[in-house]
Every structure is written in C-alpha cells, then in structure tokens.
Amino acid sequence: MSANIYLHELRTRVRSVIIWSLSVAALIFFFSSIYSGFADQAVLINQMMSKFPPALLEAFGMNRMNLATVLGFYSLIFKFVQICLAIQAGNYGFGLVSVEENELTADFLLSKPVSRTQVLTSKLLAALTSLTITNAVVWAVSFGALAIFHGSYPYETGSLFLMLGSIVIFQLFFLSVGLVISLLVKRVRSVTPYSLGLGFGMYVLDAFSGMFGTSVLEDITPFKHMDPTYMIQNGSYDTPLVLLNASVTLIALVISYWLYIRRDIHAVS
Amino acid sequence: MNIFFRELRANLKSLIIWCVVLILLVLVGAAKFSAYYNNPAMLGILNAFPKAMLEAMELTTFNLTTVTGFYGIMLIYYALMGGIAAAMWASDSISKEERDKTVEFSLVLPVSRSRVVTGKLLAALVNCIIFVLVTWGVSLWAAQQFHPDQAFNKFLALEMAGMFLIELIFLAIGLLLGCAMKQYKQSGSIAIGIILTTYFLSVMSGMQANLDFLKYFSPFKYFDAGVMLHSGKLDPMYMLLSAAIIVVCVIAAYWIYNKRDLYI
Question: What pTM value is reported for the model?
Fold first, then answer.
C-alpha cells in the first residue's frame, strides 16, 4: 500500500464519484416522490392478487412483488440503483490498471520503487473508497427520501438495512470481475462498452428470470444474488447465492493479483 | 472509402460479440417461452390480473401464450441492446482517434474532416443494419418451432423497424457526443448517462398516468410494442420526432467537428 498512489487515484476519481453519487441520489429521490400516488392504486391490486392461487403467482414471479408497500416500491427503485452502481463499479474495475496502459503511463508507474502488488492494492483500496462514498450517499438519500415520501404507510427499517448492506458486496463483485476481465484480455481500449455490457447484461438476465420462471443460468447474475424482494420477504440474505457471489469476487481478486504481477506491459516506444 | 472499410474491420469484433450475446438472449427466452406456448391455464390467469399490475410488469396488451405476445415483450430488450451498441459504436469510433493519438494521422490524410466523419458514420450504420438483420433472423428462426402465422411475421417486421429507428437515434446521439466532447473520456460517460436516464424514464412513464409526458424524452417508448400490435404501424408522430432528433444531432456533429480544436 502506497499512500501516494492511493491519494492520486482518489483525486482522479473525485469528479466521477460526485457525478455518480448525485445521479443516484436524484434517481432515488424522484422515484420515491411518486410513491404515494402509486400506493393508493396498488392497494386495490394487492387485494385482488390475494385471491389467486399462490403457485400460479409464483410462476410469474408476482408473489414476491408488492408495489403497494413502501419497501416493495423501494425494491423497484433499488434495482435501478443497482444498475447504476454496477456500471460505476464496472467502470472502476475495468479502468483500474488498463488506464495506465492506454495513457502510456504504465512504465512510469512501474519504474517507481513500489512492487506491483503494492500498486494494485493501493489502486483497489482507492477504488473501494470511491465506491464507498457513493454507497454512503445511497444510504443517506434512501433513508431521507423514504422518511419524506412514505406518506401514511409504515415500513420496517430492518429489511432496508439488509438491502443497503448488500451494496458493498454487490460493488465489490463488479469491481473485481471488471478487473479480472481487463487483465484477461490483451488490451482494454475503452472502458465504457465493457462496463455497460457487463452491467446491463447481468440486469437483463435477471429481469428475464422474473418474467419466465427460473433456470440455473440466471444464478450467475449478482442482481439475483442480492435480490431486494427476497430480502424483504425472508428478512435475510439468500445465503448460498451471496456466498457464491463473494467467492467469485475473491477468486477474481486472487487471479487479478496473479495476472497483474506477471503481466507483460508494453513500454512507450 | 478507405476510412469506411478500416472502421468496419475495427468494429467487427465488437459486432460479433454483440450478436453472440443477442443470440444467447433469444435462445434463453425461447426456451422459457416454450413452457407458456399454447397453455390456456396461463392465459386464464393473465386475463384475471388487474391491468395496473400488468402495466407495472410491462405485461399489458400481450397474450403471453402466443408467439406474438412473447416477441412483444422481447422488444424492450432488443431496443436496449441495440441502443447501447449503436451509441457505443458511434461515439467510440470518433473519440478513439484522440484516445489512441491517431487523430493527427487521420486528419493529415487528403480528406476533409466531414469525409472522415461520414466514413465512420456509415461504418457504424452498417453495423447497426447487420445487428438488426441478425436479430430479425434469429428471432424468426427461434419462432419457427412455435409455427408462427403471417400476422406474426408482419408484427416482427414492424418491431425490427422500431428497433432500427431506436438504434438510429442513439447512433446520432453517440456521433454528436463523440464529435462534440473536448475530452475523449467524456463522450462515453455521457452516453452512459443518456442511456440510463432514458431507460429509467421509459419505466417511470408507464407507472403513473400523470408521468405519461416523460415518454417523449425516452426513445425506448417511441415504438412501444403494445401500441404497434394494436395499430399495426409505427406511430407517425414519433417517427417525425425521431427523424428530427437524428437530423439535428447529425448536422450538429458535422458542424462541431469541422471547427473544433482536437485533443492531441
């Protein structure tokens, strides 16, 4: 860990972190503001829904979705927040070391008296700090917006804590998977297509699973590992899937270190 | 012409990856749909659901047990993928020259800046056309196992026209971003912002009646599969709106790129 690299990395990310945090905050705020109008209508729906046999509701994934409650509605917002966070974390992950090669600063950095392990550790910690700042903003804005807009409907904070608590695992997944992919390919020219592809790809996979039953293939998407509706319903994480997620993160990190230490980095000619 | 072919070659890998992902999406979807195909019990449940609930899940107006209804739901995913791909192709093909420090080289060639932009724009356009054709082909192929009728083929053609227009809109926006942004990194980030915002707006606009006006700001809502299924044609007002967005963005892109200071 080198303080200089860490601080430099943080400084280069300040603007990006501010923009992402503000956008996510705006997203949560605007979506929450339409809740009370929506809830009055949704109560009727839920009354009708309760008359259907549960097995059939399950087939459509509707048994898990309750838009009338504060948290049910929030879980919808949370899905969108997750997309943003996935792309942000993916951006940082894909760009973490590849940016040095693109901007031809890699040989400058690696000629410094620090080991590659130290370089990677400092960069990872800086990226994690940046993500945590956004995470903290999501926490604050979520509590604030729900407190303002929940209207006359009650909600329990326990499940909200669970959902918000899952963010850090979620971010780490995209950060480390992005990093390992960027090290596996020969050269990442542009970060955004990769992170958009990864983020949206995983989201579409998850959205799809809600629509037409489930299949094993969908268990690879973190949107499913941290499914907010599951947390609301069961009051806990889906432990096997979260463990799967965490182990993917760990393996990706280990492979990243292994690859980065051995990576052949072209010097500026 | 050389620029055009050079760009096509450079984008080939990206095009192949997008096509593979799309084919996977269609295959997974079709495998799941086969459980619903011609299942009257499912239809009964769907009809019994209140409209607002289905609306929230974007299931309105589609009879999920028919192949037409199934492809109606797929359109939003097609459009999302097409839009992202188009915006990335267009913005990246312009801004990558500055990123890779090759912009000086391409501009000392005996061609005007407009010709450079034209070559890149055409290459991205060809990519979009291929992407739509692949989508169309795979969808038709996957639908064969469900014995689609003539009406389905017409509806799918309509959907593909809608998808293509959405691609064109994002292509034009991406081109403008690539040409206008002073720093090459910004064009990608702003493209992400626009895609995310328009997608969220399209979801929001369906949720509540008084937020309906938001649909004008989201190209994903311009060619709604449900509306197309009923009317049997693309909405002329939205076609005009799309054409206006495309023309304005492309003209602005050329105009700005011709006079801007390039980052070397």
Answer: 0.84
